């Protein structure tokens, strides 16, 4: 007589419950029933420890009066820090600087990136070589390139002022030490560093587009500009939104370049939101206020990304 | 007679043996054998030339394992704060500048009281001789808050001095400056242009970048008769950077950099300034005195043999060399405090400090400066450095709990003084930043009583000593 095969969906094939079963079988049965939960426990614990706990700790810290250099015990102050930050002029300026840097750098990266992507989308001799060379800035370390740019920007012996002087501009430009020039200088570095990434994303989009609409437009006698505005951009819209979302997230979070090149100066003209949080947390010792600003910074990024995603959803169904 | 001699020699030998055995018993360097200690220190010339090379010898002597992590100051301070705020017992000792964060760390309770360790003959060698063998300028920097315990052991005696190109002074017949007026006259005379009007040689260079300016500007501030803070009649401590004397100092310092310095001064970190001087591009550099070892090294400098070091010239308020010293301290959360103290006590002994001096790290023990084994890199450097450690005060920064913000505030005034330079603009910015500083005092210093340094509680370098480094200059080059 053949033995019955184990019941599908169980490890042991033992009866699920009831009947005359021993403790061992009961444990095996319980494990069997809860296998999906058990397998997920390590991941959940890991996430709880590495994500949920720090987030909750930041939320709690943001509602205390923790100042690093005082022996007094921290007190719970509710939302006082969230209110206080709006009377901090440096924080308000930092929000504006974040928007300035993000819009300024992403706009130029997009315009240049699109143009270069369209160039690389054409067939020409040595295209693969030029494309590879063009992508090099993207893989360089931010701190290293920032140090090189500091030398290039140097008021006295920097390459940029040297070039300007050879063009007849005698007045040295204080690229990083003039509060009106410092942010445009940072945007220039950002554009140099990240335009290749924008190009890569848009080039991938261009290469995935169908050729028929372009051929049809050509047959209809569309000019290159009409092709760009009426065919390329509408077809590429989805890719453009993804590229803008990715680059704007990176630009909002930009830190290492600013820290290396200007440390938020001069006169805090390049202090962005996360630089302000960094100074408050690690330089000034205002741990609680920095935590509150961190939460607000997170909400700021979230709001922008949600807005961009909604825009993408609306535009996607063309 | 021979018998008596033999008895005498034997007695002497036995006494010598007993004495040496007793001395050895007096101080037991191996009492914490097997322990491991971890120190977080600044990446600085003294770390490489004094502390690190001697660790192996200490480990052999004591059986204690020492792990030293050296980091650049800004990063080290952040790591230090995180460890101390978390009351992490892994950190045993660390370096700090009392004039920078001494007040904040004292107030937070992050510094162990070292007096009991010093007073304990089982933990401190009998010939340690603290504070008698420590220079006055170094000791001036140890305590920053009234009632503060001895919570740090000062060791590094670096000072902000004026490095000058003696060959250029001689070649152009310019008087080596002893006063602020002479300093400006020299800077003007040594700002040399070529036929096309391009500057070939800048007359003066000092820090012009952000918060770092406070350290180099401090001497100019005090020498002009001003100070970072003053006391109101009711005893309240308020910012003094908007006083007429302070505005004079900002105006002078800004003008010196703007008119006689390279535009790069606004970008340069101290290391870049030193590199410019070493490259032979400037006639005078206001900077820390340990850079002399770079200037005198022909492999790293084009001005080797042509440099003299003098005190920053005296001003209407006198002469107050700025000595931003560095100290060693023990974390109150350490589990190896005694072993950490043993390391501090050992590395700051005369022999070990002499090792540092000979390798280019100015040290706080008086006796090492006069030791016959030690020769200063140049005669004028030796004179000026020694006067600085005798008379120096810790004025590099406006000492406060919110020290970083205070430095940022002053840095903004210096920035305006260099870039704009008009007295009205400087006054407006100084008033604005003084208000910021006063608000910070009110916010962060409840119950904390900073003791200075203020004008009036320190002695100016006497005029006859002010000129000693100038007289010591060896004009052969």
How would you classify the helix and strand content of chain B by structural class? alpha+beta
Widest sheet: strand ordering of chain B: 2-1-3-12-4
In N-to-C order, the SSE pattern of chain A is HHHHHHHHHHHHHH
State the distance separating the first and last CA atoms of chain B: 65 Å
Number of strands of chain B: 12
| Percent helix range of chain A | 55-70%
Mean pLDDT of chain B: 89
* Low-confidence spans of chain A: none
Q: Please give the number of β-strands of chain A.
A: 0
Helix and strand layout, with pairings?
The complex is a heterodimer of chains A (318) and B (477).
Chain A: H1 23-33, H2 35-62, H3 80-84, H4 89-120, H5 127-134, H6 136-139, H7 142-153, H8 159-166, H9 182-208, H10 212-219, H11 224-252, H12 256-261, H13 273-283, H14 287-316
Chain B: H1 2-26, E1 36-42, H2 45-62, E2 65-71, H3 73-85, E3 93-96, H4 98-108, H5 115-119, H6 136-139, E4 153-156, E5 160-165, H7 166-171, H8 180-189, E6 192-193, E7 199-201, H9 213-223, E8 229-231, E9 237-239, H10 244-260, H11 270-278, E10 284-288, H12 292-295, E11 307-310, E12 326-330, H13 337-347, H14 350-358, H15 366-369, H16 379-391, H17 403-419, H18 423-444, H19 463-466, H20 468-471
Parallel strand pairs in B: 1-2, 1-3
Antiparallel strand pairs in B: 3-12, 4-12, 5-10, 5-11, 6-7, 8-9
Helix pairs in contact in B: 2-14, 9-10, 10-17, 10-18, 17-18
Summarize the structure.
Chain A contains 14 helices and no strands. By secondary structure, chain A is an all-alpha fold. About 2% of the residues of chain B have low confidence.
């Amino acid at each position: 007589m053949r033995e019955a095969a184990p019941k599908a969906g169980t490890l042991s094939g033992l009866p699920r419950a009831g009947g005359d079963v021993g403790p061992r079988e009961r444990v095996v049965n319980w494990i069997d029933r809860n296998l999906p939960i058990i397998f997920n426990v390590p991941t959940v614990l890991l996430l709880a420890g590495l994500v949920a706990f720090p987030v909750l700790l930041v939320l709690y810290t943001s509602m205390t009066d923790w100042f690093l250099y005082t022996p007094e015990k921290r007190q719970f102050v509710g939302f006082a820090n969230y209110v206080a930050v709006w009377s901090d002029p440096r924080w308000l300026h930092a929000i504006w600087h974040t928007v300035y840097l993000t819009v300024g750098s992403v706009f130029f990266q997009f315009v240049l990136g699109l143009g270069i992507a369209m160039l690389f989308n054409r067939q020409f001799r040595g295209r693969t070589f030029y494309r590879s060379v063009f992508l090099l800035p993207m893989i360089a370390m931010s701190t290293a390139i920032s140090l090189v740019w500091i030398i290039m920007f140097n008021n006295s012996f920097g390459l940029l002022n040297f070039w300007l002087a050879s063009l007849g501009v005698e007045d040295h430009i204080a690229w990083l030490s003039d509060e009106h020039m410092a942010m445009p200088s940072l945007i220039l570095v950002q554009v140099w560093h990240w335009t290749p990434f924008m190009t890569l994303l848009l080039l991938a989009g261009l290469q995935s587009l169908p050729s028929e609409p372009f051929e049809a437009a050509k047959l209809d006698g569309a000019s290159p500009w009409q092709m760009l505005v009426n065919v390329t951009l509408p077809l590429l819209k989805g890719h453009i939104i993804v590229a803008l979302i990715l680059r704007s997230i990176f630009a909002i979070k930009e830190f290492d370049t600013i820290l290396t090149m200007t440390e938020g100066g001069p006169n805090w003209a390049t202090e962005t939101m996360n630089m302000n949080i960094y100074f408050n947390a690690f330089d000034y010792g205002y741990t609680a206020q920095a935590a509150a600003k961190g939460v607000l910074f997170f909400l700021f990024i979230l709001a922008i990304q949600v807005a961009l995603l909604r825009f993408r959803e609306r535009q996607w169904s063309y | 007679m021979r018998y008596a001699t033999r008895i005498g020699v034997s007695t002497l030998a036995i006494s010598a043996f007993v004495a040496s055995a007793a001395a050895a018993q007096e101080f037991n360097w191996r009492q914490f054998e097997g322990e491991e200690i971890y120190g977080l220190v600044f990446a600085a010339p003294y770390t490489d030339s004094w502390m690190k090379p001697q660790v192996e010898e200490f480990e052999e002597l004591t059986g204690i394992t020492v792990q030293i992590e050296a980091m650049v100051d800004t990063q080290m301070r952040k790591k230090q704060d995180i460890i101390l705020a978390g009351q992490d017992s892994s950190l045993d000792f660390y370096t700090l500048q009392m004039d920078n964060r001494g007040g904040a760390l004292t107030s937070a309770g992050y510094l162990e009281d070292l007096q009991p360790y010093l007073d304990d003959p089982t933990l401190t060698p009998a010939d340690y001789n603290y504070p008698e063998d420590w220079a006055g300028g170094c000791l001036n920097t140890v305590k920053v808050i009234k009632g503060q315990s001895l919570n740090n052991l000062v060791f590094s005696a670096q000072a902000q001095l004026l490095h000058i190109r003696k060959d250029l002074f001689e070649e152009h017949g310019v008087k080596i400056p002893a006063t602020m007026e002479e300093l400006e006259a020299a800077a003007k005379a040594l700002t040399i242009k070529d036929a096309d009007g391009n500057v070939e040689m800048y007359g003066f260079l000092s820090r012009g970048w952000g918060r770092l300016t406070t350290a180099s500007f401090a001497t100019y501030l005090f020498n002009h008769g001003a100070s970072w803070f003053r006391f109101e009649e009711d005893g309240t401590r308020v910012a003094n950077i908007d006083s007429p004397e302070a505005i004079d100092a900002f105006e002078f310092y800004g003008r010196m950099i703007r008119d006689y310095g390279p535009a790069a001064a606004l970008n340069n970190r101290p290391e870049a300034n030193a590199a410019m001087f070493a490259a032979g591009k400037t006639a005078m550099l206001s900077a820390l005195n340990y850079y002399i070892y770079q200037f005198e090294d022909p492999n790293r400098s084009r001005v080797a043999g042509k440099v003299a070091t003098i005190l920053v010239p005296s001003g209407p308020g006198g002469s107050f060399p700025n000595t931003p010293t560095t100290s060693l301290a023990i974390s109150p959360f350490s589990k190896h405090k005694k072993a950490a103290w043993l390391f501090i006590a050992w590395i700051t002994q005369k022999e070990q400090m002499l090792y540092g001096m000979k390798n280019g790290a100015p040290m706080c023990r008086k006796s090492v400066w006069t030791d016959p084994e030690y020769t200063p890199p140049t005669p004028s450097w030796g004179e000026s450095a020694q006067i600085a450690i005798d008379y120096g005060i810790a004025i590099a920064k406006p000492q406060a709990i919110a020290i970083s913000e205070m430095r940022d505030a002053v840095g903004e005034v210096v920035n305006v003084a260099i870039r704009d330079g008009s007295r009205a603009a400087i006054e407006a910015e100084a008033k604005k930043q003084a208000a910021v500083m006063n608000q910070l005092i009110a916010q962060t210093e409840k119950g904390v009583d900073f003791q200075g340094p203020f004008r009036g509680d320190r002695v100016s370098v006497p005029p006859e000593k002010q000129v000693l480094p100038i007289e010591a200059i060896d004009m052969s080059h």
